[in-house]
């Protein structure tokens, strides 16, 4: 294995003169352990099925030790357990770079351990710029992704002891020259998120934010509302559960109400509805809600990364100047591509599937689609 020190620039980074079009803030690098399991394991661990709840390292290790007696074998998967670079932002950037040919870079920190090396190698292979990723002495975050037979996934991240990029380490040079900054809402990264948004606005960089999980919205809602109502979030993604948690105090709680709230404060608002597609609204246009159905098969092998890859396709559409409906259709294609295999990384044959779906829908395909033909 190549040493991580050989793959990363020294910290602080020496930034290249050509800035990536899209940057992502992921203060702590993360490695995902993805495995198909029977439901009985989920009954033994704390938290709700289908969500994402932080755990201590002891609990993570306990879950990993229990996996061997709960793994569901799959003839379509060469290994029952996949370990890859993870995290919502990393998934979105990797999708943009490998599937759409958009120049991307990640801002954050990784540990000088085996997990950090894996994260670096995976993101390097995916052609994501790592010149803004600081290496620190310590451990890299990990997450176990438990996938049920129906494709539903339950995530248990462990970041409590992971190295992290602190808010005071961010500089205007980190984002200068880029067009978009992608981030994920998380209360434990709130200082870094606020600092990154402030710097992005100073540099004229648009900000996209994903609402992370219904637990994060439900438990840390007041800070989230403050961020949204600042007017500094240009694009916001929420799934149906996150949308419901966001507007829980309203007289009527449904995706349309959440979309109207988000569109009041964000230039673009998107609520994904799983197999029912998505709804989107551009700013404060009265009554102008775009509804786009899902594309392709409805059965999911693994829902991990579906929202992240939807964001990849939607952002590709935005930077290419596509109509809003087409941005949603591309997002639906890329989100549909990732659920066809384990993990938040689209396999080559599933990029081929995505390009075919895009061609059927008469959507603009990336130049690199010939690479996968």
UniProtKB/TrEMBL annotation:
Any Pfam family: PfkB
CDD domains reported in the protein's UniProt record: adenosine_kinase (cd01168)
Superkingdom: Eukaryota
Signal peptide range: none
Record bears the keyword Cytoplasm: no
Record key words, sorted: Kinase, Transferase
Domain Carbohydrate kinase PfkB: 72-344
Molecular function per GO: kinase activity
UniProt similarity note: Belongs to the carbohydrate kinase PfkB family.
Full protein name: Carbohydrate kinase PfkB domain-containing protein
Organism lineage string: Eukaryota, Viridiplantae, Streptophyta, Embryophyta, Tracheophyta
């Amino acid at each position: 294995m190549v040493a991580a020190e050989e793959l990363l620039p020294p910290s602080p980074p020496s930034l290249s003169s050509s800035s990536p079009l899209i940057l992502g803030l992921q203060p702590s690098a993360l490695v995902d352990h993805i495995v198909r399991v029977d439901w009985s394991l989920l009954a033994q661990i704390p938290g709700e099925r289908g969500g994402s709840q932080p755990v201590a390292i002891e609990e993570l290790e306990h879950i990993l030790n229990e996996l061997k007696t709960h793994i569901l074998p799959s003839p379509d998967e060469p290994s029952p357990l996949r370990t890859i670079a993870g995290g919502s932002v990393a998934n979105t950037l990797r999708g943009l770079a490998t599937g759409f040919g958009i120049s991307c870079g990640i801002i954050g920190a990784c540990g000088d351990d085996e997990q950090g090396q894996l994260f670096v190698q995976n993101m390097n292979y995916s052609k994501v710029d790592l010149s803004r990723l600081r290496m620190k002495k310590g451990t890299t975050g990990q997450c176990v992704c438990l996938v049920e037979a129906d494709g539903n996934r339950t995530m248990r991240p462990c970041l409590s002891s992971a190295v992290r990029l602190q808010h005071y380490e961010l500089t205007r040079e980190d984002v200068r020259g880029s067009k978009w900054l992608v981030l994920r809402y998380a209360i434990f990264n709130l200082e870094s998120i606020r600092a990154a948004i402030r710097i992005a606005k100073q540099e004229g960089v648009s900000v996209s934010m994903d609402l992370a999980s219904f637990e994060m919205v439900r438990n840390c809602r007041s800070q989230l509302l403050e961020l949204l109502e600042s007017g500094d979030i240009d694009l916001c993604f929420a799934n149906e559960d996150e949308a419901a948690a966001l507007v829980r105090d309203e007289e009527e709680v449904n995706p349309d109400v959440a979309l109207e709230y988000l569109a009041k404060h964000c230039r673009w608002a998107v609520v994904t509805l799983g197999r029912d597609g998505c709804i989107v609204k551009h700013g404060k246009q009265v009554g102008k809600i775009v509804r786009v159905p899902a594309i392709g098969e409805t059965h999911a092998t693994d829902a991990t990364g579906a929202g992240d890859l939807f964001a990849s396709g939607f952002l590709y559409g935005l930077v290419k100047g596509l109509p809003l409906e087409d941005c949603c259709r591309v997002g639906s294609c890329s989100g549909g591509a990732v659920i066809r295999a384990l993990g938040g990384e689209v396999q080559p044959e599933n990029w081929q599937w995505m390009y075919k779906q895009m061609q059927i829908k008469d959507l603009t395909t990336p130049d690199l689609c010939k690479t996968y033909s």
